[in-house]
Write a structure and sequence with these properties.
Helices cover 4% and strands 35% of the residues. By secondary structure, it is mainly beta.
Length: 110
Amino acid sequence: KHVYQFLAKPVLTKETSPVEIWSPQLANNAAFGIKANGRKTADGYEMTVYVPWSFVNSGRTELQTFSFDIGINGAFAGKAKRKIQMMLFGTAANCNDPSAFARIIRSSKK
């Protein structure tokens, strides 16, 4: 419950452009204000994802902390199956054990 997976299809241009994202748990990401931009860099790829606090905190008591992870799937061109997966914070057991996720702490300090 309250776990969402967002998938992004990278933009392979040098100009910052909107990135197509979708979630198996949501019918329409844009309706919640979730969006992403990305661009190819000289040594890799850069992506910015915007998830409004109102979405993270929707319909629940006021959250002060939430956890997240970022995974990258790699595949060979023209092949449907994943060849490799890298996780930024978690492990291969992310779907069962989110204990290694990074945490964002909301503060009222300005």
